[in-house]
Amino acid sequence: MPATGAEREVLLGTLRVWLDNGCSAARAAEALYCHRDTVLHRIARICELMGVPPESGAARLGWSLALRALPLVKDVETSGAGFAND
Q1: Which residue of 2, 21, 36, 54 sits 20 to 30 Å from the alpha carbon of 80, by its own alpha carbon?
Q2: How far is residue 23's CA from residue 55's CA, in Å, rounded to a whole number?
Q3: Mean pLDDT, the chain, integer
Q4: Are 14 and 39 in contact (CB under 8 A)?
């Protein structure tokens, strides 16, 4: 089942904090003011949605790059600007 809008925001926020804390559920939980198991559940949900294991270095790199690009995509969407199809 795809993530809802509210779940999407929670998952993206958790993923960002988890990656920023060296993929440590304990440190991410402390930063997010939640239980370590909650972080692990959210990361497992992301992996379920994406079809990749959390141990995958390629997945972690891809997630990091996607999270950095996300604000840029949102800016383009809200400004109405787009890429021309030549």
Answers
A1: 2
A2: 9
A3: 89
A4: yes
Of 65, 53, 64, the residue nearest 15 (C-alpha): 64
Residue matched to tokens 């939980």: 29
d(CA 7, CA 3): 6
SS (H, E, C) the chain: CCCCHHHHHHHHHHHHHHHHCCCCHHHHHHHHCCCHHHHHHHHHHHHHHHCCCCCCHHHHHHHHHHHHHHHHHHHHHHHCCCCCCC
Token pair belonging to 4: 């809802």
Per-residue pLDDT reduced to its tens digit, 4-25: 889 999 999 999 999 999 999 9
43-63 pLDDT, tens digit per residue, is 999 999 999 998 999 999 999
Q: Considering Cα of 39, then 41, then 18, then 46, what sign does the dihedral take? A: negative
